[in-house]
Specification:
Blueprint: E1 2-12, E2 15-25, E3 31-40, H1 42-55, E4 62-67, H2 70-85, H3 99-109, E5 113-118, H4 126-141
Parallel strand pairs: 1-4, 4-5
Antiparallel strand pairs: 1-2, 2-3
Helix pairs in contact: 1-3
C-alpha cells in the first residue's frame, strides 16, 4: 500500500510556483519530490504534483492519493468524465483550463488503482505540511 500527499503553491497567481510530493511506502524510506515553474498558477502546480507523484511509479500500484486541492480531487473524480464527453468544454461551453494537465492525469490514473482523499491544508497534518514545504522550497530557491 502506498500513500501519497501532494501540494502546490504559487507566489503570485500567476507567478513562480512549486509542487511537492511525499510518498509513504510500507516498511520503506519516505520519498520526497518537488519542482516548479517560473510562470504558472496554483491550480497548475496542484495538478503537476499529482501527475509527478504518479509518474514516479513505473508499475501498477494501489495508491491512496491525498490532496488539499478540491480542484484536483473534484476534477478527477467528477468533472473530467463530462469534460471528455463534451469535447473538453465546461458546462458553460468554455474550454477547460489546464486541459493538457487533466489529460495527462487522466491517463496516469488509468495505470493504477487510486483512492482519492481530501485533507484541509495548513491544518497540522504532518505529511501535508511537508508537501507544502517542498512546494514552497522551490519558490524560495527560484
Amino acid at each position: 500500500m502506498i500513500t501519497i500527499y501532494t501540494d502546490g503553491a504559487c507566489s503570485g497567481n500567476p507567478g513562480i510556483g512549486g509542487w511537492g510530493v511525499v510518498i509513504l511506502k510500507n516498511n520503506k524510506e519516505d520519498t520526497f519530490l518537488n519542482g516548479g515553474n517560473h510562470n504558472t498558477t496554483n491550480n497548475r502546480m496542484e495538478l503537476t504534483a499529482a501527475i509527478e507523484a504518479l509518474k514516479y511509479f513505473k508499475d501498477k500500484q494501489t495508491i491512496t492519493l491525498i490532496t488539499d486541492s478540491k480542484y484536483v480531487k473534484n476534477g478527477i473524480q467528477s468533472w473530467v468524465q463530462n469534460w471528455k464527453k463534451n469535447g473538453w468544454k465546461t458546462v458553460a461551453k468554455k474550454p477547460v483550463k489546464n486541459k493538457e494537465l487533466w489529460i495527462e492525469l487522466d491517463q496516469l490514473i488509468s495505470m493504477h488503482t487510486i483512492s482519492w482523499e481530501w485533507v484541509k491544508g495548513h491544518a497540522g497534518n504532518i505529511h501535508n505540511e511537508k508537501a507544502d514545504y517542498l512546494a514552497r522550497r522551490y519558490i524560495e530557491e527560484a
